[in-house]
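Morning F.,

Quick status update on the modeling queue. The single chain you submitted on Monday has been processed. Sequence for confirmation:
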Amino acid sequence: MKLIILLLAGLFTLQGTAKADEDRAISVEQLPSKAQQFIKQYFPKNEIALAKVEKDFWDRKYEVVFVNGEKAEFSKNGTWEKIDCKYSAVPEALIPSAILEYIRKHYDNVKVLKIEKDSKTWEIRLNNRVELEFNHAFQLIDIDI
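Structure tokens below.
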């Protein structure tokens, strides 16, 4: 019984320290230079409402929220991971040509509102509410309508 109590106490202690996630606002100058350059290149007219860093034990990510509600998320080195434009279109230069070609072929007059990439997939949301998922060979692997 004492062993169970000790194990539970240890578990609660570890759970408390595991909650070391930290989100805090930062200045734009504190973003990685790669992220700063990205914003200047692709969103030069967007005013930044908030820049923040999200830290946990193993990783660090950055998020930029623009005044118009659009968002960009970056990895710890400043590489973009997610762009959410809500009302305007994601800059076409950010969309791989194979994905852009697929969208143009299968969907007329749509805009890409959101693009997200990770180590395995690319996720795309169109303004007609269709969500497409591609693998890193740019083959369509899922459609959510």
